[in-house]
Amino acid sequence: MASAHPPGAPAPREYAGDMPHLFDDATIAGVLGHMNNDHADDNVLITRAFSGVDDVVSAEMTGFDGDGGEWRVTTAAGDEQSVRIAWPGGPITERREVRREVVALYDGACERLGVGPRPHE
After folding, report:
1. DSSP 8-state code for residue 22
2. Which of 25, 29, 41, 53 maximizes the CB count within 10 A of its CB?
3. How many CB atoms lie within 10 A of CB 22?
């Protein structure tokens, strides 16, 4: 799995016993359902900007933990791979922080790609 973190984001942890926070199944299912059903285009923008994979044409969020999110991306050539992108604000432990970090990734992706972001509700 490719791993990346947005510019300015804290470096990923050195996993010497310091494991990321794991969210419960209901939280993960809720966030993944929302991202993949309501924000599919945002998944593409985020992975185009921060995954290091060229020519991303589709992306599905497949998981996350306290250190970052995971997406399965498909390229224009039809190749698929999994990527991991660190949360821009560093490690998190609460569900409400997931939204904050995904919004930060989206805003950063829009800036990096020169796309005007939509307002957040």
Report:
1. -
2. 53
3. 12
Judge contact between 91 and 20, C-beta under 8 A.
Answer: yes
Q: What is the CATH number of domain 25-111?
A: 3.20.180.10
Write down the pTM of the prediction: 0.86
User: What radius of gyration, in Å, describes the C-alpha atoms of the chain?
Assistant: 14
Instruction: Please calculate the CA angle 31-32-38 and round it to the nearest 5 degrees.
Output: 85
> What is the spatial distance between Cα 63 and Cα 70, in angstroms, rounded to a whole number?
5
Torsion over CA: 67, 7, 118, 114 (sign)? negative
What are the distances in angstroms from CA 78 to CA 1, 57, 75?
A: 17, 9, 5
